Amino acid sequence: QGGGPDKRRVPAVLDVAHRGASAYAPENTLAAVEAAQRLDATTVELDVQRSADGELVIIHDTSLERTTDAEEVFPDRESYAVADFTLAELRRLDAGAWFGAEFAGEPVPTLDEALARLHRHRLNLLLEIKSPELYPGIEADVASALRDRPAWFAPRPSWRWPRLVIQSFDRESMRRSHDLLPRVPHGLLGTVPEEEIGDYARWADQINPDHEAISADYVDAVHDAGMQVHTYTVNDPGDMRTAIAHGVDGIITDRPDVARQVIAEE
Ligand code: G3P
Ligand code: CA
């Protein structure tokens, strides 16, 4: 089960299923984790936010309208901000039907449920703290949730990639999270100016930019500072090949099956 050696091939470039295998199942649901598993992904990216009563939940947008039926279930609410709904309210929502009728009834998962499912399938996790400015103290909440599941801190035998990475566009949030969880690698989303890379390399482990923003020189500069580059969101095989030619360490994609094929060609 989750703690054993990983018998799958260790990829030269890491494939990361963005919001789960979100081309094939509703993003940030357990169905998207299952799809990633079926497609033989090694790693899943998920977004974490916090409910009104302090529970950590997996969802991308900071409001509920796009990926749930919140407006139908709660027609009288003035705001559909994730932060304004309790976990009990969020659990009444359907986070799957918008993607396809076969996913109707798929709930908004909690972080804990997602961690358990990923662990069961021996999938690794790239966890994005989404919009941490809306959730003061969320880094400590995430750290506490992870400390309850120590397997996430143990390296996988024969697996050269980290089992768990935490990332955010908010660099101060990542600094706080790193201070709380110094053994967990941390990634900075977006493009860090080259002259600042050395400063961040003192504590960060990855710089994870949009694939359209990178060049081989930029990737080299990050590598020279001792960090990795995992680039998003790369869905076209030609763009994947370009990113790999630039020297990236990981491809974050809605289509992990395509990434696995392209990576295997290299
Ligand atoms: O992992 C990279 C990617 O998830 C960042 O963008 O908007 O999809 O969270 P977004
Ligand atoms: Ca994300």
TrEMBL record:
Keywords: Signal
Highest taxon listed in the record's lineage: Bacteria
Keyword Cell cycle applies: no
Domain GP-PDE: 13-263
Single Gene Ontology MF annotation: phosphoric diester hydrolase activity
Biological process according to GO: lipid metabolic process
Protein name: Glycerophosphodiester phosphodiesterase
The species this protein was found in: Streptomonospora alba
Full-protein positions shown: 57 to 322 of 330
